[in-house]
Amino acid sequence: MSINVALGTYILPADHKVWKYFPGKDYKFHDVVSETAVALIDVRDLNDLGNDPDEWDYDELLDHIAADRIERRVEAGAARPDRFVRSAGDQATLTFLQGLFFTAKKGDLVVMPDKGYTTGVKIGMLLDKRGVLKTVTAKDSNDEKYTYYGRRVKWVGEIEKRKLGDDLIAQLHSLAAFFDLGRSRYEEIYDKAFDDYVYDGSFVSTFRTSKNIFTSKDNLLSSLWFELIEVLEEARENDEDLKVDNIYELAVDSEINEDDRNDLSIYVQSPGWFRWRSQKIEPLAAIALFAMATANVPYAEAREATVSAQIVRKADDQCLGDVDETVKRYLELLGKDRWEQACKLAVKAETQATLKANATLKNSENHATLRK
Fold first, then answer.
1. Where are the alpha helices (H) located in the chain, listed in sequence order?
2. What's the number of domains the chain is made of?
């Protein structure tokens, strides 16, 4: 039996984008979008143009948007205008529609704010290709039901708005309904949406703990695991063997230069996390090794294990081969006896410190889950 370590890691393509998405005037469709998981646009009865969005005519679409705007104003008590005139706002709505329906790609993220600065921000991943739309029936402000078009999303994260950076909050409250937040904002969103991801040469992994009171012993067990991985990576890079038989001595006596270490962020209030960020493959290898160690996978089987992840669109997945090779090299460096010590350490970190990594072990022959 061969084992596959299925990482929860998202491998993102170079052209991946994060979009600000606005759920209608005064956030009126926020709850509908949240419940239906369809990022819709506030234009009523677009199905009047036909059921195939690819065949919608540009001018007819703009006229429909303008007519819908005029009808809403009449419903609100305004006099019906003598002549039909498109507005700059109609063009802005069309730009919103084109961006959401036909520009944003499958796998891109949409970030949906709610009212106020202390409410939540939901993050969704687009599930379908461009132009593949879903209809939702919902009530408008006049309490009448209409058909709305949108794109299916999978909610992958939610964060209190106050925990975001001020610049990002300002963007989310801007008047524009749909736009690319910009690469400088992506990492902040990715950290909230994905525990583990690969993007633009950065490898990020997150180990979580649900411990209500995180003790010094819990911190010790967790830190020993992370330091062991650092020791293994240094030995791998320098093509050296380990000189000490005891993994605890290896971790405690390590003298790795600070400049050669990965960026480790720690937040231990319940629920807490350890987030590892690197330009090297090490954080992903750490997850794979931890998953096998906590499951007490025998040494010989661990050395034959393969690694998989969640590939978004046509992202370059070459790094998975690098993870395979790195994990095998770590195991080779450890040897059977030290691997068994590492398993005991990982089990203690999991059971006592409630340290968890997002990975599942499967039998690669029949895909049966062995352990999560």
1. 30-36, 58-75, 88-98, 166-172, 183-193, 216-238, 247-252, 282-294, 299-303, 318-352
2. 2
Backbone angles phi and psi of 340, in degrees to 5: -65, -35
Structure tokens at 89: 């706002």
pLDDT of residue 365: 58
Q: What is the pLDDT of residues 200-227, one digit of tens each?
A: 999 999 999 999 889 999 999 999 999 9
365 and 224 within one domain: yes
Residue 24 amino acid letter: G
Question: What does the alpha-carbon distance between residue 288 and residue 361 come to, in Å, rounded to a whole number?
Answer: 9
CB 345 within 8 A of CB 221: yes
| Residue whose pair of structure tokens reads 């010989």 in the numeric block | 300
CA distances from 268 to 82, 211, 261 (A): 65, 8, 21
> Residue 226 contacts by C-beta under 8 Å, 6 or more apart in sequence?
264, 274, 276, 286
Quick one: 250 and 141 in the same domain? no
Residue carrying the six token digits 């005519």: 57
**Cβ proximity of 249 and 309 under 8 Å:** no
Q: Model-level pTM?
A: 0.90
Question: Which residue range forms the structural domain that includes residue 328?
Answer: 3-11+202-371
Distance CA 273, CA 270 (A): 9
Q: Is the pLDDT of residue 371 over 60?
A: no
CA-CA distance, 355 to 346, in Å (whole number)? 8
**How many angstroms separate the CA atoms of 145 and 137, rounded?**
6
- State residue 258 phi and psi, 5-degree precision: -55, -35
Amino acid at 129: K
Same domain, 358 and 214: yes
Q: Are residues 152 and 251 in the same domain?
A: no
Q: Is the domain of 118 the same as that of 165?
A: yes
The pLDDT tens digits of the residues spanning 326-370 come to 999 999 999 999 999 999 999 999 999 999 999 999 985 544 444
pLDDT digits (tens, 9 = 90+) for 119-178: 889 999 999 999 999 999 999 888 889 999 999 999 999 988 888 888 998 898 888 899
Does the pLDDT of residue 317 top 70, yes or no? yes
* CA 155 – CA 158 distance, rounded (Å): 8
Copy the structure tokens of residue 37.
Answer: 């998981």
